[in-house]
Amino acid sequence: MAPKKRSRVGEDKVEQVKVQATNPTGAGRRRGSFTRSPSFDSKNVVSPLSAAQFPPESFEEMMEEAEDSLADTLGAIVKVIAKHTEPNFSLPWQMRHQASSSSTGFCIEGKKILTNAHSVEYHSLVKVKKRGDDRKYVATVLAIGRECDIAMLMVEDDAFWEGVVPLTFGDLPHLQESVTVVGYPIGGDNISITQGVVSRIDLQQYAHGSIELLAVQIDAAINSGNSGGPAISSDRECIGIAFQSLKGDAENIGYIIPTPIIQHFLEDFEKNKKYTGFCDLGVFIQQLENPQMKAALKMEKSDKGVLVLKVMKTSPAAKVLRRFDVLTHFNGHPIASDGSVDFRNGERIFFSYLFHTMFAGEEAQVSFIRNGEKQSATVTLKPREPLVPSHIEERAPSYFIFAGLVFTVLTEPYMKAEYGDNFDYESPVQFLRKWLTSSREELNEEVVVLSQVLAHEVNVGFEVNNIVLRKVNGVKVKNLRSVVELALAITEAPKVTDEKTPDFCPAIDDNMVKFEFEDDEVMILGREEALAATATILSQHNIPSALSSDMSDLSSSLDDHSTVEQKPRAATASRQKGSGGKKNQKRKRQEKK
């Protein structure tokens, strides 16, 4: 369904579904409601065929073949046991306690295993266990597709693959087609089989990836631990991967990742030897159904399309499209006034599906109307680059400590760490605005926030936290690295001598560092005093360095005493929680169990 007001194509639309993704059982890494495995229900079991319907020989042969076929299918489905060590985004120099989880995976051609990305996120060890086998085999994670919530594993031990018949993939199912979800949900150690039918095929918000991609809705229960399990068709082919379920009043509504998304992930890995992501056109659009508005844009009555509201400066469309263009076609597919395109017989889907099927570096043809003139151009697609990332690629978060001021990068994991699973309600408005409606103005741009202030006499009076940093010494902040370079005078800021300019401050000299924030708050510190205090603060809180490891090349610009040995009995910095923000942008959330 197309957005009612304003949306970022390929990312968030206003109308979203409140979904809860199936978290690996026992993960303990995110808050959420866990449901018990449903009790045995005869309605979910296929009724056995009557022997009276067939001659004895043919009936016995058919049943033997069916059992052999089912055994092969179940033999390819494995239990995934993982240990996770997640970074502490509130205290970015630390890691959180190790957690355990179990989920499901299945074997495919090439001696590979597919499961969900959230099943192995921040993994430190992954093992897999076959049905009927008491041995657990160590698995290597080859690729993680965070947007599409798919991960690929490999087991090197040849003994694991003995007798395994890999699953093959079927086509995208049709409505009312039967589907069987197989996995290892909570409530027991043995494999579980649940049956249902396909009830909807549309773009849905992926809880783990924070992006809208094609998904299949089914009326079979998907419980915690089912994550990564295959959805099997009546032809014994895999037609999807279980990954999330509806949270709320509705029951037995689950979602599977369909084969077009799975094949895109596999082909991406085959082409690039790594996961590169799903492409994004990079425009904000609006439905265009009002006749007077169409006339104002010099459109003919028969013309259809969507209005371009904003083009991201770093996007593929930046050199082609502009505000108030009317996007009419993508690769020859006509775009309706509600943003939909033909999908299958009698079905329509939002047009972002078209560029989600393409790969980075591929060219696409776009047609548009500009000031009444119909034009077309070619764009080279590339993966989406959100200003506020949904993930940080399995590394520790970046941080910089200066006189007790802890700066870090605004990400979804950071907001979740600070404000919980309801971060999209409870986060400060300035965070949500950056997350929902802002885009990168230049490459490598980041939103830098003052996370907290570690108390010291040098920062007396600066009792704030979780505010966005805007400038350092009058220079606009590009990313966290630029903050370090300006604060340490690696990059020299231009001197402001004109008293009429807003950046003029009579107290500023070469030894001063001025921080300006989005709420007009200002902090001014002496550089030498700040560096000396930083060493003391690091020692007090047992923090190994004032800089995260990804900026270690800048550490030489710090005084030698800015990096200290850890004291085993030192106290850890306590968090000063912010007051949160207004409930804003009531997006229907998708959360993991």
UniProtKB/TrEMBL annotation:
| Protease Do-like PDZ domain boundaries | 388-550
- State a single Pfam family of this protein: Trypsin_2
Gene Ontology biological process terms, A to Z = proteolysis
Protein name per UniProt: Protease Do-like PDZ domain-containing protein
Q: Which Gene3D superfamilies match?
A: 2.30.42.10, 2.40.10.120, 3.20.190.20
Protease among the record's keywords?
yes
**Residue ranges occupied by any PDZ domain in the UniProt entry:** 298-381
Question: What segments bear the compositional bias annotation Low complexity?
Answer: 548-557
Q: Which family does it belong to?
A: Belongs to the peptidase S1C family.
Which keywords does this chain's UniProt record carry? Hydrolase, Protease, Serine protease
Task: Report the superkingdom from the record.
Answer: Eukaryota
Q: Where is the composition biased (Basic residues)?
A: 583-593
Q: Does the keyword Ribonucleoprotein apply?
A: no
Matching SUPFAM superfamilies: PDZ domain-like (SSF50156), Trypsin-like serine proteases (SSF50494)
Q: Where is this region: Disordered?
A: 1-48, 548-593
What species does this protein belong to? Answer: Palpitomonas bilix
**Compositional bias of kind Basic and acidic residues:** 558-568
Biased-composition ranges, Polar residues, are 34-47
> What PANTHER family has UniProt attached to this entry?
PROTEASE DO-LIKE 9 (PTHR45980:SF18), PTHR45980
Which InterPro entries does the entry link to?
DEGP_PDZ (IPR041517), DEGP_PDZ_sf (IPR046449), PDZ (IPR001478), PDZ_sf (IPR036034), Peptidase_S1_PA (IPR009003), Peptidase_S1C (IPR001940)
In the record, what terms sit under GO molecular function? serine-type endopeptidase activity
